[in-house]
Amino acid sequence: MIKLYPDRTVPALLRVLADLVTISWAVAWGVLGWLIYKTVMGLEVIADGLTNTGMTFNSWITSFRNAIPGGIPGVTQFLINVADTLRKYSGDPLVAGGHQVHDAIIKLAIVLALLVALPPILLVLLPYGGWRWRDMRETGAALAFVRIASITGRAEQARAVLAYRAVSTLSFRALMSASTDPVGDIAERRYDRLADAMLKRAGLDPGRLAPPQLPELPPHRHR
Questions:
Q1: Does residue 212 lie within any of the structural domains?
Q2: pLDDT in tens, 86-103
Q3: Does residue 99 sit within a domain?
Q4: What whole-number distance in Å separates Cα of residue 96 and Cα of residue 87?
Q5: Among the ranges 18-32, 74-88, 157-171, which has the highest mean pLDDT value?
Q6: Inter-CA distances, 160 with 134, 185, 192, 199, Å
Q7: What Rg, from alpha-carbon coordinates, does the chain have?
Q8: Which residue range(s) make up the domain with 112?
Q9: Does residue 166 belong to any structural domain of this protein?
């Protein structure tokens, strides 16, 4: 069972605030990474300029090649070879270079955006996300424990379990804040204060483990 937030107001508000801060942190760095990506991608105009220049040269060379008169021995083939050479060493390299620069700009934009955004996001999100997941599972498990005890009518036995767990897991400061005589409470089976402290630590309202109220029977009338 998963319980997102504790029952008590202050711990719940603190977790909501921490969630909002963490999400805002991740979104802020994600936006910064996106801005860096868009900025670097603005260099595409350089690649597009190279590609367009090469295509313009090729179109001129094609027009020149189509305008070569045919049937002139030696001259026609010479001009065709010149046109093909111009295309090979001017237009085509510019088009290919433009495509290569375009691909390099895309890769550079992605790498820079990830290098800027991911480390700070993961630095906060991974430890906080792991802690929140464990916290939600722990609170949910405590809620399941309380519900089963309440449904089965074993609230008092559950309080005893919680009291013993409080003595064994709470710090001495928290233990003495819950009860001035923890040992005496355990010895005399006064489990309420220690059980309530344990439930609060688990993020639950101690009232969840209140014993079920028995319905009041109507007074018996004597005839």
A1: no
A2: 666 566 777 777 778 888
A3: yes
A4: 12
A5: 18-32
A6: 25, 10, 8, 12
A7: 38
A8: 9-128
A9: no
CA distances in angstroms from 4 to 16, 186, 209, listed in the order given = 9, 32, 19
Q: Is 68 contained in some domain? A: yes
The region, left, alpha or beta by phi > 0 then psi within -120 to 50, assigned to residue 71 is left
State residue 71's pLDDT score: 59
pLDDT above 70 coverage of the chain, percent: 80
pTM above 0.85, yes or no: no
C-alpha–C-alpha distance, residues 86 and 80, integer Å: 10
For residues 81 and 122, is the Cβ–Cβ distance under 8 A? no
**How many residues does this entry show for the chain?**
223
Contact between 32 and 117 under an 8 Å Cβ cutoff? The reply is yes
Tally of CB atoms within 10 A around 40: 18
Domains: count for the chain: 1
Residue type at position 139: T
Q: Residue 51 carries which side chain, given as an amino acid letter?
A: T
- pLDDT of the residue at 68: 65
Look up residue 94 and give its two tokens.
Answer: 């510019």
Between 9 and 54, the more confident residue is: 9
DSSP 149-187: HHHTT-HHHHHHHHHHHHHHHS-HHHHHHH-S-HHHHHH
Work out the number of other CB atoms within 10 angstroms of the CB of residue 145: 19
